[in-house]
Batch of 2 targets.
Target 1
Amino acid sequence: QVQLVESGGGLVQAGGSLRLSCAASGRTISTYGMAWFRQAPGKEREFVAGISWSGGSTYYADSVKGRFTISRDDGNRLYLQMNSLQPEDTAVYFCAASQNYYSGSEAWRYDYWGQGTQVTVSS
């Protein structure tokens, strides 16, 4: 089993930045595909960004491309650097892990999920 815990969320003004972290425990995630998703009130969970197990490939939703950067370290951590935040980025952000190397946008293909961290962007 893999446990994922997100941190780094908070309240920020439009145009500001936040860096989210996701710490994994239980097993090494070095061979797992990883991703960030988000869910705003009244909306479905949506893909934000994904990264391959090696870190060599990254994928982004069009809405965050050029503003957000996903990365991972050699340990058991995943990151999401969020710049130029806008009110529409307000959501609970979740990290997800796929033991089958998947790092795309389909949520059902991820095996483990964190509890989420709230990001609120004020206008």
Target 2
Amino acid sequence: QLQASGGGLVQAGRSLRLSCTASGSVFSITTMGWYREAPGKQRELVATITRSGNTNYEISVKGRFTISRDTAMNTVYLQMNDLKAEDTAVYYCNAHDIVLGTVGHFSYRLDDWGKGTQVTVSS
């Protein structure tokens, strides 16, 4: 289960930090990331990070957003700087390629999603 926090209402140019933690008997998660869904638009990728630290960003957030991860804590962060009105959306945390359980008692899940946290940027 993914639990996200950190959304809110901010003025353009300010910063917010989102965090998301996977709870339960998580053994490993290959990729964690953030997606967003603005009103009237499809959900889009914002940023992802692998266990080895490889990152990928949507082009409009490059240089403004930074994704990081605490693998031991199964937590992913999204530092969002210089926010713009067009960043307004519901942000969803994603975990991909998940192994649950302990040695000898593993189960697998392809994807898991958090419930979303609202980010609103006023211009």
